[in-house]
Specification:
The structure is a single chain. By secondary structure, the protein is α+β, with helices and mostly antiparallel strands. The protein folds into 2 domains: 106 residues, no CATH class; 61 residues, 2-Layer Sandwich (Alpha-Beta Plaits), CATH 3.30.70.20. The protein is built from 7 helices and 10 strands. The strands form 3 sheets. It has a 6-stranded antiparallel sheet with strand order 1-5-6-3-2-4. A two-stranded antiparallel sheet has the order 7-10. Strands 8-9 form a two-stranded antiparallel sheet. A hairpin with a 2-residue loop joins strand 8 and strand 9. The two termini are 23 Å apart.
């Protein structure tokens, strides 16, 4: 009997999630166990966990094959709802097993991270959300969007805690002035050049 591989988890930005789906040979769709358990999200967004052929067989049970186009459509829909993308991959071979479009109300791993508050010890992407101070008017919309509380506004000026940023990209969608961009930083976080 084959040994079950160790699976690691990493928060990734939307562009990386799309790139992985575009490279995948097969994509499977499965109901999100966190949403099904918590039932805080509408039923029409429970089927959002995307699995790949390297997923453990038990993870593919009750999953159905979908097209690349359908998978990208799910990502787009969940981006509009403020999803945070969790990438799961095998520890040793670094092969992608799953991408889940996580919500902040049902996702047990995200809630646990926030409760523990040890963000510095958590795996993060190689990206950081950089704000152009010349464009930012301190409106605070990105503060409301940042689940990890990396942003706050004091006296009309945005303050940013780099160590709390996971590079998920949620803040970008909220900025009406397009003052925020994700920037790749060598040596930051966990490399995500994993294969599908």
């Amino acid at each position: 009997m084959a040994e079950t591989p160790q699976i690691d988890r990493l928060i990734i930005p939307p562009d990386q999630a799309r790139e992985i789906i575009m490279r995948a040979r097969k994509v499977y769709l499965k109901e999100c166990v966190c949403r099904a358990r918590e039932q805080r999200c509408p039923r029409d967004v429970w089927d959002v966990c995307l699995h790949f052929e390297n997923a453990p067989p038990d993870d593919l049970r009750n999953a159905r094959t979908i097209t690349t186009r359908d998978a990208l459509s799910i990502l787009a829909t969940m981006a509009e709802r403020g999803a945070i993308y969790n990438l799961f991959y095998t520890h040793a071979e670094r092969k992608v097993t799953e991408i889940c479009s996580c919500c902040t109300c049902c996702c047990a791993p995200l809630r646990k991270m926030k409760e523990q508050g040890n963000y510095g010890e958590q795996p993060r992407s190689e990206y950081v959300a950089i704000t152009d101070a010349a464009l930012c008017d301190g409106c605070g919309l990105c503060v409301e969007r940042c689940f990890f509380e990396a942003r706050r506004v004091e006296d009309g000026i945005l303050q940013f805690a780099d160590e709390r940023c996971f590079g998920c990209g949620r803040c970008i969608e909220s900025c009406p002035l397009e003052a925020i961009r994700l920037e790749f930083q060598v040596g930051r976080g966990v490399p995500i050049s994993v294969s599908v």
